[in-house]
Amino acid sequence: MAGICFLEAVGLPLPAALAILTAGALSAYGRFHTVAAFGAAFCGILLGDIVLFTLGRVSGWTLLGLLCRLSANPESCILRSAEYFYRRGKQTLLFAKFLPGVNTMSPPLAGSMKMPFDQFLRFDAAGAALYVSAYGIAGYLFSDVLRKLTQGMKSAGFAVEVVLGVGVAFYIAYRIWLFRKYRIYKFAPRIPIEEVARRLTSNDQPPLLVDVRSHGYYDAEASRIKGSIRIEPNNLAEEIKSLPKDRDIFVYCT
Length: 254
Hints:
Number of helices: 12
Strand content: under 5%
Structural class: mainly alpha
Strand order of the largest sheet: 2-1-3
Mean pLDDT: 75
Number of strands: 3
Radius of gyration: 23 Å
Number of domains: 3
Shape: elongated
Largest sheet: 3 strands, parallel
Distance between the termini: 38 Å
């Protein structure tokens, strides 16, 4: 139990929620000690989150990029997680476990944004407890339903295996399609600093420099490249409307 929850917390695609749900159901029949099962799940999640928080503090966006390579679209993966922090702050940690994608990204994002460890630990522990309690209690209360469902699946036997097999095949095909669709975004084109400086001092129309650092790394007093403008990446749909159409635009982030 603890191992599955830990491995999912650090980013591996394992069904921790299903494991907790099953543990809750087994606890109702006396096969698991309720407190021990839920405690193991809680400790596994919290330990995994602490590991990612620490790595996020040390490596910053490098770890976020590595985790997001498992996503179909790395750009939206990072921005979606950052957006939750931008709108809800540390309260994001309370509900992050229920949000696919955001659950793994929240601890390293909190670490990279230099959130105090004691503050992170309080909110993340509360979120882990809420997550384990929700699925564990659901499994406990609906143990009879789950038992009948599993018995029905056993009697269905071959039909269930076929359905699951087809489902897995479609899922794999869907992920391959998403990967091919978004692979163009895996690498952002870059321009050397020397070329930027040359373009800025040439007689031609200079490019527009845009600061797109995430809110966690930017504030009103932050230093910015001279002549650049600031736009908020989490409000890109509106911000982009004010950008000129007749100039080259170079963006820079953290």
